[in-house]
């Protein structure tokens, strides 16, 4: 079974969701560290949207290979990856990763 690693961009299902929470199967960035992911069966993710917004909690993927869009840091979420059909896509580029961590640090 695939165990997600920090900086992985994956496809994962966000359903069920409520209100304005991100919905459906979509890409997400794994922000939790490898030890946490492996020992708990959970991972902490930021969803990725194809909608570009000029708001401080959206981080544009600066060097897209496969996935283009914005990392939605204000919808950070812990998910059980063993139950949500997770699928590896690619590694996040270092610039987008650093920008994501700096953005999360502002409100966490």
Describe the protein:
With 108 residues, this protein is of the alpha+beta class. The chain has two helices and seven strands; from the N terminus they run ββαβββββα. Strands 1, 2, 3, 4, 5, 6 and 7 form a seven-stranded antiparallel beta sheet that branches. The longest helix has 14 residues.
| Residues in β-strands, percent | 25-35%
Helix content: 10-25%
The low-confidence runs, each spanning 5 or more residues with pLDDT under 50, are none
User: Structural class from helices and strands?
Assistant: alpha+beta
Please give the largest β-sheet: 7 strands, antiparallel
Label the overall shape.
globular
Mean pLDDT: 94
**Extended strand count:** 7
- Indicate the radius of gyration in whole angstroms: 13 Å
Order of helices and strands: EEHEEEEEH
Report the total helices. 2
For the termini, the CA-CA separation is 31 Å
Short overview:
With about 110 residues, the chain is α+β, with helices and mostly antiparallel strands. About 20% of the residues lie in helices and about 30% in strands.
Provide tags for this entry.
108 residues
Set down the secondary structure blueprint.
Layout: E1 8-13, E2 25-30, H1 34-40, E3 42-49, E4 58-60, E5 70-72, E6 77-80, E7 87-91, H2 94-107
Antiparallel strand pairs: 1-2, 1-7, 2-3, 3-5, 3-6, 4-5
